[in-house]
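Hello,

Our lab assistant flagged a job as stuck in the queue for most of the afternoon. It eventually completed. Since we weren't sure the result was trustworthy after the delay, we are filing this so someone can double-check. Below is the sequence as submitted and the structure that was eventually returned. Let us know if re-running is recommended.
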Amino acid sequence: MPKMKTKKSASKRFVVRGSGSIKRGQAFKRHILTKKTTKNKRQLRGAVEVHKADVASVKAMMPFA
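-- returned structure --
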């Protein structure tokens, strides 16, 4: 039986909180920022919770989290 391994890309993108919810960073904030409004960029700051439809797949990628 092979070892269970964490997907390293997932461990870099997601953080499991103490409550069990999963935190992720916002997308669309890396480049081509000149055409995006200041309001849009400001609302992309900070972290948000992973949607409940995606929680199972994220937890499968991180079996030890």
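-- support follow-up --
The delay was a queue issue, not a problem with the job. The result is valid. The chain is about 30% helix and 15% strand. The mean pLDDT is 97.
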